[in-house]
Design goal:
- By secondary structure, the protein is α/β, with parallel strands linked by helices.
- Helices cover 31% and strands 19% of the residues.
- The protein has helices at residues 2-20, 55-68, 110-114, 119-130, 161-170; strands at 42-50, 72-76, 85-90, 95-100, 103-109, 187-190.
- Helix 2 links the parallel strand 1 and strand 2 (72-76).
- The protein is globular.
- Mean pLDDT is 80; it is low at 1-37 and 174-187.
């Protein structure tokens, strides 16, 4: 009994420390550690406060990923906390700058929107980069990560089965717990 109380106390302290340090807390179901229950999805927060007129498209893109995969959940950041993903509007081409899996900056560029590309597809595509997916060009409209090569008429904001499976693998049950951080890198993807 004393060991369980101590373990719960240490878990609570670690969770609080990670939250204060800007890291993410990872929820586990009650009774975790028995090996019988699955781990909870990894939560990745996003700040769309500077996404201007694209705010609804960003929220819809995040919701599409939440509907499509189980091992990661995108949530708006709580007031006063640091987000894993910053989302900004600018006049350039849409792009994502990843710093590590689940972390980075997304730009919803007006250049593509002015050319007629769908804002929800752009948002979903760029969030896909943050979730670990590369561009797959050229590609059909059924591939979210085909990006602009699917053409202006493509409005599909949903990942296909292979893209879903890749994200599920990226955030599989082992990565529902904090994992050692990979070597820092910045990858710019211009779509």
């Amino acid at each position: 009994m004393h060991a369980r109380a101590l373990a719960h106390g240490l878990t609570a302290a670690l969770t609080a420390a990670l939250t204060l340090a800007g890291g993410q807390a990872y929820a586990a179901p009650a009774g975790a550690g028995t090996g019988a229950e699955p781990l909870a999805a990894r939560v990745v927060t996003y700040d769309a406060g500077a996404s201007a007129e694209f705010r609804a498209a960003v929220d819809r893109g995040a919701a599409i990923w939440n509907e499509s995969v189980a091992n990661v959940e995108l949530r708006p950041v709580a007031t006063g906390q640091r987000a894993n993903i910053r989302i900004l509007a600018d006049n350039g081409w849409p792009r994502a700058l990843t710093t590590s899996l689940g972390n980075g900056t997304v730009y919803i560029g007006r250049q593509a929107v002015n050319q007629g590309y769908d804002t929800v597809r752009i948002s979903s595509h760029e969030l896909g980069h943050i979730l670990g997916l590369p561009d797959r060009k050229p590609g059909p409209c059924t591939s979210l990560m085909s990006g602009s090569t699917a053409g202006v008429s493509c409005k599909n904001p949903y990942p296909n089965a292979a893209e879903k499976a890749e994200v599920e693998g990226n955030f599989g049950t082992a990565s529902a717990r904090p994992a050692p951080a990979p070597a820092p890198r910045t990858v710019a993807t211009v779509d």
